[in-house]
Amino acid sequence: MNEAAVGVIRKTFEAYEPGSSSNVSFVNAHEEHLLVTFYVHKISQLCGHFRFPEEVEATATSYLKRFYLKNTVMDWHPKSVMLTALFLATKTTNNPISLDVYASHIPNTVASDVLDLEFLVAQSLAFEFAVWHTHRALWGIWLDIQNLPDSLPDISKTQGSIYESALIHVRAARLTDAEFMYTPSQIALACISLTAPDLAKKWLESKENIPLPENRTDIPPRPSATTLFASIEAIKSIITNAGKVPDVEAVREVDRRLRTCKNPEKVVGTKAYLARKAEAEKKAEEKKNKKAEIQKASGAADTDPFGDPLSEPVKPGLVDYDDDDDDD
Amino acid sequence: MDAVERENLDRQKRWAKEQKVGEGAYAVVYRGREFSTGRRVAIKKIKVGQFKDGLDMSAIREVKYLRELKHRNVIELLDVFSNKTNLNLVLEFLDSDLEMIIKDRSLVFLPADIKSWMAMTFRGLEFCHRNFILHRDLKPNNLLIASDGHLKIADFGLARDFADPGFKMTCQVITRWYRPPELLFGARYYSSAVDIWSVGCIFAELMLRTPYLAGESDMDQLKTIFRALGTPTEQEWPGHTKLPDYVPVGQFPKTPLRDLFTAASTDTLGLLSKCLLYEPRKRVSAAEALQHPYFYAIPHPTHPLKLPKCTTQMAPRPLGEVDGDGNVDDDVDMTGSGGTFGAGVKSGLGPGVKSGAPNNTNKGRLKRKITSPMEGADGDMSARTRSIARKLDFTKERYVKSP
């Protein structure tokens, strides 16, 4: 992904200013990842500032990470994408706030900065807005643990710290890619296991003897305990190794280099940007003319009562993908 | 071009937009086709540019929930793509809705037909509730009918997932005539039982062929409900007087459902009354309703293919009747905005309960229903009477339609 992006941007550089790409040092996949992770952490800080519920924060981080599965920081800077992802998450989780209020709380940001990328972000998410969260799974397992036959009646009071510290691991897991590889409940169990391994094991064992519902073909076969334990251990090591906020200095260094290797078509004022804009305008103009011609043609046909009945009428709108509202 | 834009264009190219079939304040619906298969689809184009807060909440809700739900009795969202500042939802194409069928005076409903629609509604709703989604806008107009007779729940613009206990939700949801009393009293904590009340109203409407509880304002709605079902007592509905917007609206005696639904079987009224229980916690759930004796008793539900079909073409219907309320959210108090609900008081139809009994035009229809042998008739018998009833109606239809 990173290589492909570098290739495209290098070509763009070359197209507008031959030879200019040779001394550009592009950011690599690892550095892209570092930068995105840093802004995942930023989301968490912003959410604290706005006092958004956990669900908003978790959704926005998933959106940001998913966005960069399909895009590169050299095209879209995570700082702007983060703001849009968070705003979109407030809406998809049913916690909407007014855009003006939102933008006014963020320095150097106007409403349009947030909105301009909204479609791009939604598209990159393939309009899959619902996210199933690990913190919900954690809460579910925690409630279930309290129901274990031999758990103490006041476990939620005496052992409440287990839940609290597991939740801290869940938040750390958000900085990692674990959610792309494992299910929310597996990650949640791993977080409990990081805090109280015996309790996690006991809970898992209590589930082993529950028979699967009969006559249900829609439930996939249950993984063996060994497979599950292996997954849990793998998640645990991901969280321990990668669940950290990146070093600010390292991020700053990447960001500084990013300024030199951004896709020139996306930087306002560069030659490439202007060229692309001119091209887009030319295209729009052509389309407009074409549409006008079609209208003229069909209008002429209408007014001529003896118009050639054999000529195929032009049907605007049938394959005209950019067809805007017919009535605006 | 970016990978994402290219992907979007590829999606867009799968679908052909044809003629416009409906338009509303926030969306335009086109008939369309899938290029590769020729399959008919509906493309709902949501105008986004006009909203100052970007993508609008009802569009987001609709996309979010329909992407998750796939069931025979829930409308299928086939694809989503954007184009300039418009969001396009590709939905399965459905010819008509239950409201059109109810209003089509040339059709006669047999009890088995009603049972079939109710079964499909409850199945779709049970699926939503099983997946922790409240619909919050059930009404005949949102129950669409496919060409093969299958009923599909549509319009998830007001849907939301179950809130955690203690989390406030807005009470300004559900079109007024289908809104349960707890919402009219301003309850901010409620459950899937709100949808069940709506289904109960639809059930009654299928029998009456006119909206059952058609209040003229939110206050009148409560009065209409109590006039029909009697004012609730503290025993029937503990704690209702403590609800935020509780106001006494007068004492009305309880009249048996049997007085209005003269032709209905005991099972029918049994299920109906369980949907219209005042105490939300006692109201039947969708899953329980599907196990109710009503669905096991004779006559068996009509096969979807054999259900009465609308004789008229789907006219461009106004979309987004709850516009303006599309943005209701759960943290903002929307009190006072409820006026737009149930917009467009349907003309020509006497409200089911308002006048105490169906008005004269309805009486004729009810009588015809009564004279047709209903519940308990064996399969053969009902098939025969049906063909007669249909025949009668077709002549009438021709009479009405011929110039």
UniProtKB/TrEMBL annotation, chain A:
<dbReference type="InterPro" id="IPR013763">
    <property type="entry name" value="Cyclin-like_dom"/>
</dbReference>
<dbReference type="InterPro" id="IPR031658">
    <property type="entry name" value="Cyclin_C_2"/>
</dbReference>
<feature type="compositionally biased region" description="Basic and acidic residues">
    <location>
        <begin position="280"/>
        <end position="294"/>
    </location>
</feature>
<dbReference type="InterPro" id="IPR006671">
    <property type="entry name" value="Cyclin_N"/>
</dbReference>
<dbReference type="InterPro" id="IPR036915">
    <property type="entry name" value="Cyclin-like_sf"/>
</dbReference>
<keyword id="KW-0195">Cyclin</keyword>
<protein>
    <submittedName>
        <fullName>Cyclin-like protein</fullName>
    </submittedName>
</protein>
<dbReference type="GO" id="GO:0016538">
    <property type="term" value="F:cyclin-dependent protein serine/threonine kinase regulator activity"/>
</dbReference>
<comment type="similarity">
    <text>Belongs to the cyclin family.</text>
</comment>
<dbReference type="GO" id="GO:0006357">
    <property type="term" value="P:regulation of transcription by RNA polymerase II"/>
</dbReference>
<dbReference type="Pfam" id="PF00134">
    <property type="entry name" value="Cyclin_N"/>
</dbReference>
<dbReference type="Pfam" id="PF16899">
    <property type="entry name" value="Cyclin_C_2"/>
</dbReference>
<feature type="domain" description="Cyclin-like">
    <location>
        <begin position="41"/>
        <end position="123"/>
    </location>
</feature>
<feature type="region of interest" description="Disordered">
    <location>
        <begin position="280"/>
        <end position="328"/>
    </location>
</feature>
<dbReference type="InterPro" id="IPR043198">
    <property type="entry name" value="Cyclin/Ssn8"/>
</dbReference>
UniProtKB/TrEMBL annotation, chain B:
<keyword id="KW-0418">Kinase</keyword>
<feature type="region of interest" description="Disordered">
    <location>
        <begin position="342"/>
        <end position="384"/>
    </location>
</feature>
<dbReference type="GO" id="GO:0005737">
    <property type="term" value="C:cytoplasm"/>
</dbReference>
<keyword id="KW-0723">Serine/threonine-protein kinase</keyword>
<dbReference type="InterPro" id="IPR050108">
    <property type="entry name" value="CDK"/>
</dbReference>
<feature type="compositionally biased region" description="Gly residues">
    <location>
        <begin position="342"/>
        <end position="353"/>
    </location>
</feature>
<dbReference type="GO" id="GO:0005524">
    <property type="term" value="F:ATP binding"/>
</dbReference>
<feature type="binding site">
    <location>
        <begin position="21"/>
        <end position="29"/>
    </location>
    <ligand>
        <name>ATP</name>
    </ligand>
</feature>
<dbReference type="InterPro" id="IPR000719">
    <property type="entry name" value="Prot_kinase_dom"/>
</dbReference>
<dbReference type="GO" id="GO:0032968">
    <property type="term" value="P:positive regulation of transcription elongation by RNA polymerase II"/>
</dbReference>
<dbReference type="Pfam" id="PF00069">
    <property type="entry name" value="Pkinase"/>
</dbReference>
<keyword id="KW-0808">Transferase</keyword>
<dbReference type="GO" id="GO:0008353">
    <property type="term" value="F:RNA polymerase II CTD heptapeptide repeat kinase activity"/>
</dbReference>
<keyword id="KW-0547">Nucleotide-binding</keyword>
<dbReference type="GO" id="GO:0070985">
    <property type="term" value="C:transcription factor TFIIK complex"/>
</dbReference>
<keyword id="KW-0597">Phosphoprotein</keyword>
<keyword id="KW-0067">ATP-binding</keyword>
<dbReference type="InterPro" id="IPR037770">
    <property type="entry name" value="CDK7"/>
</dbReference>
<dbReference type="GO" id="GO:0004693">
    <property type="term" value="F:cyclin-dependent protein serine/threonine kinase activity"/>
</dbReference>
<protein>
    <recommendedName>
        <fullName>[RNA-polymerase]-subunit kinase</fullName>
        <ecNumber>2.7.11.23</ecNumber>
    </recommendedName>
</protein>
<feature type="binding site">
    <location>
        <position position="44"/>
    </location>
    <ligand>
        <name>ATP</name>
    </ligand>
</feature>
<comment type="similarity">
    <text>Belongs to the protein kinase superfamily. CMGC Ser/Thr protein kinase family. CDC2/CDKX subfamily.</text>
</comment>
